[in-house]
Amino acid sequence: MARFEHTVTVAALDRHWFEEAAGHVVDLFDASREQGGEILLPDGRPVHGLRLLKGRHLQSGAQYGEEPGQKDGEGAPEAAVLREWRPSRTVEVESRVAEEGMSMRVGVRLREPRTPRALEVSLDGHNPQGGSLYRFSGRGKADLHAWWAALEQPSSAPPAARAPVIGKAVHRLGKARLTVTPRPAEDGTWRVTVVLGVRGRWLLRPVAAVGLFFARRPIEKGFREGVDGAAEEWAKALAELAPLRGEALRAEIADALTEPPEPVDPPPSPGPPPKVL
User: Fold this and answer.
1) Which of 141, 127, 222, 228 is nearest to 178 (CA)?
2) How many CB atoms lie within 10 A of CB 258?
3) What burial class does residue 101 get, using C-beta atoms within 10 Å of its C-beta: 0-12 exposed, 13-18 middle, 19+ buried?
4) What's the CA gap between 22 and 20, in Å, rounded?
5) Greatest Cα pair distance in the chain
6) Which of the residues 127, 167, 213, 218 could staple to 140 if both were Cys, CB 3.0 to 4.6 A apart?
């Protein structure tokens, strides 16, 4: 089994702000209504990019997505199915995505959504034209109460015995396990340790061990770069969050749900190569 570990320092997220924001999102959708396929917030504005395609709004089995034929000329839209909507207990959504020959089913379940307790994610993918080598699955869970509890400990305390975030992936050739464990730093930031374990399955274990031996350095480099990249994205996301509370925060979230995202400007063209004299 190959094991990779990397620790990054990231800015802390205020727990009370996070739970307040989550509560506003849930309350806005819980008070929304459907009209002509559009999902309208309590103030009457439609949620951008979200339409009811089938079923009854916020009822089990309701299907959401884009209108048929409005996604790059395709006849069938990608859709998300609401499996459960109980804002005080559980919200569960399942979506199916087809991309580059792969068909994937993604499930997301949020427990106690108004003050999120746990987030569970499942992923199953396969290529309808391929065999078992084109099948994979993954499961992940973030115990948010355990996450916050770990950050309430003194910075000198040992890390949590069980990681608050655990992910597992399975393929015919191997298995992978990912854990994420936070610790508070003395300056108020978070020290987040990510550990990845990879191993082969059954009779392929010796072959996988040899392959990992020779590929260890590039895999470790890619792993570290991926963790560092995630930390940079976290920093960007926190920098964009306005320190709002109460009704001001609710209004900001409503604006974000109803307004289309700003287009991303393409990078400038490098222009023609310089002439060589």
Assistant:
1) 141
2) 18
3) exposed
4) 5
5) 72
6) 167
